[in-house]
Each structure stands twice: as C-alpha cells, then as structure tokens.
Amino acid sequence: xxxxxxxxxxLALILISSGCKEKQTTAVSSPDGSIRFExxxxxxxxxxxxxxxGEQILKDSDLGxxxxxxxxxxxxxxxxxxxxxxxxxxWEQVWGEDRYVRNNYNEMTVRLSEExxxxxxxxxxxxxxxxxxxxxxxxxxxxxxxxxxxxxxxxSFDFGKDMKAWxxxxxxxxxxxxxxxxxxxxVDTAHTPFTIEAGEGKYLAIHEANLTDYAKMNLTPDGEGxxxxxxxxxxxxxKVYASAPCVTxxxxxxxxxxxxxxxxSKIMLNLNEPCALE
Length: 278
Known about the structure:
Distance between the termini: 79 Å
Strand content: over 45%
Oligomer: single chain
Mean pLDDT: 91
Number of helices: 3
Order of helices and strands: HEEEEEEEEEEEEEEEEEEEEHH
Low-confidence stretches: 1-22
C-alpha cells in the first residue's frame, strides 16, 4: 500500500520540479505596483513581458545579441536574479521645463548566462517607474568575453496586435519632418522616439536614454504587432565595437493613460547621466 502511494507522489514531485525549471520567472514592479516587468525562461530562452494593472502591454519579447563572426545569437539558458534596489529622490535641473525632478523606481539586475565549456554572461538592469520602464545590458568583466563586436542586438517589443503609430523614417535627417501615422506593420525603419496609439486614449513611446559609445537604435516590424531593434551600422556593417566592461543605452518605454502624461514623463531625464554643468 505504501509503495502504491509513493510512486504517484514521486512522479508528481518530478513534474512540479520540471515545470519550475521550464518556467523560471523573475519580476519587478513599479513603486505604485501598477506596472510589472517579468523575465521568464521560455523553452530555455530568456524573454521579457510587461503588464499594467493586470493588462498585458508586451507579450514575450526577445533579449540578447548576435556577435560578429558567430552564426547564431548568444545562447543564454539561465536567468539569475543578482540584486534589487529602490530609489526615491528629488534632484535639481540646471536648465529645463521643471526645476525639480522626482526619480522614483524599483530596480532588478538579472544575469543572462550561457552554459558549456566557455560560458559568457550579460547582466540586464531593469528600472520600473510608475509611468514606464527602462532596461539596459551590462557586459561585466569576464574571461570569455573581452573585446568583441556586435552584429545584431536582438531586443524586440512584441505588442501582440497591430496598432497605429507615429514615426519618422530613419533616413530623415535631424529628426525634422512631418510624422507618419500608420499601422506598425506599415512602418519601414523608424527613428525613435516611436509613439503608439494603444486605444482608449492610451499612448506608448519607445525610445532610448544615455546613448554613449554605442549605435543608435531604430525600429522595424518583425511580424504582426512586433517591433525589432535595428542598430545603425558602421561602414563595414558592424553595429558596435566594444570591450568589457561596458553598458548599452537604456531601452525605454513610457506607458501613459493620456497624451498629457506622455509629454510630462521624466523617465528620459532620470535615465540619462547627470548634467556635467553646475
């Protein structure tokens, strides 16, 4: 009798354990709890998703890189939470629309790692604010990745449905032109900021912050409702020449309930480096 009960129990524990290994979730929420940023190992591959008030904003979206000279993306099969942090401060601008800016966020750092004889790893630093989020990749000093070149950054933003967007073509100089208003699927390759009409008066805006020693990010469609990062290349096609330790710019998204909140967001200011002028 004991053996008959033990075998089904053992099988159940194995299935539960396998399920935990298959889907490992790491998440951080905004200070007010409305926005949730999750990283999940899905089929052995790390992806991220974002929700607000329980409603999905981004479904499973890609992370990572393809390095020059390699046929496939870096094979990250682990996502380990390394640290968490929170900040709520007010700082003074030297010049700008508002003299004082509140910087209030929750942060997590997740290490994306390869397995094998010569594993490499990249840290993903995520900051979630009450009106959006930013994340950046950090290449720490490590034995198996020193000087390298990036062929592609594989970051994507998967909304799961085609929506109207305001955008400028990448070929437009100086970011000065009449904006296009089309479905995302009709975009060619767009500059950021890339503004999306999400319905019911809600707006989203994808951009980047602290662009230093790195290629500019553009966006192009990659399936229905999905936009993919496209980096501006050097003349030889290489996107970025780098050496660890180094960081990428922040990939940012403002999540606004109306057009006024979109314009008033301070995410970009808070994620850029402090002004060097006193």
